[in-house]
Automatic annotation (TrEMBL):
Residues 177-196 are annotated as: Disordered. Keywords: Signal. Residues 1-26 form the signal peptide. Residues 177-188 have a biased composition (Low complexity). InterPro entries: PAPPA_SD_C (IPR058897). This is Pappalysin-1 SD scarf domain-containing protein. Residues 40-174 form the Pappalysin-1 SD scarf domain. The lineage of its organism: Eukaryota, Metazoa, Spiralia, Lophotrochozoa, Mollusca.
């Protein structure tokens, strides 16, 4: 099969068509939260607790208060409430779905955990709002050149001036070894830093390229 590869070299855009063996084609894998790293507050340990974000969405698309979603502690309607969630494996995250089921629109920032244990912003906004319906929030993310298994989500409760509930979080991306399951449509090649290629990356003209989606 023939794929078009676009990359920048010395300020020039080169377009190259060539055949890629099936083994190097990266495919998407979807992961739901498997553990909780931390949180700013929670209403209780069980119902309404941070643990309710684990697993597949079980409230969405229903809108309204539910004990099966994460709820902040009473009176914690601040601009910097957060939950830190983890996944079963590290992947190059391409997309995220945050299932908001009460007072949607409060997500202010999303961060990923880098290999040095630091949180790096991959999306943020100053335009938080209150939406009286549930939604699957899927913002355009800044992609990082490292795989991660952890996400930090900050919510601003000040606009709603009350509780904000999150039912579940799902990430979609590429395994470092490229051994994923999912669609192979619209694959492109994105530059990766360094000259030593990792499994699942393509080596071309002394550079490494990560197969992924734009």
């Amino acid at each position: 099969m023939v794929y078009e590869v676009k990359f920048s070299s010395f300020g020039l855009l080169a377009i190259l068509s060539f055949s890629l063996p099936t083994a190097v084609l990266a495919q998407d894998v979807a992961l739901w939260v498997s553990f909780i790293r931390g949180y700013s507050s929670q209403y209780s340990e069980g119902n309404y607790g941070a643990v309710q974000v684990k697993g597949k969405a079980d409230v969405y698309p229903t809108y309204g208060d539910s004990p099966k979603a994460w709820l902040q502690a009473g009176g914690h309607f601040t601009a910097d409430e957060y939950i830190e969630v983890g996944f079963a494996e590290r992947i190059y995250i391409e997309r995220i779905h945050i299932y908001e089921t009460l007072n949607a629109g409060a997500v202010k920032e999303i961060k990923s955990l880098n290999p040095f244990g630091q949180w790096e912003s991959i999306w943020n906004t100053t335009q938080v709002k209150k939406i009286a319906s549930s939604r699957m929030f899927s913002p355009h993310l800044e992609r990082k050149n490292y795989p991660t298994d952890s996400i930090h989500i900050t919510v601003d409760c000040t606009v709603a001036n009350t509780y904000v509930e999150i039912d579940a979080v799902e990430v979609i991306g590429i395994r470092p070894n490229g051994n994923n399951q999912g669609s192979t449509n619209n694959n492109t090649v994105m530059p990766s830093s360094g000259n030593t290629c990792s499994p699942g990356q393509l080596h071309f003209r002394d550079s490494c390229y990560m197969i992924g989606r734009r």
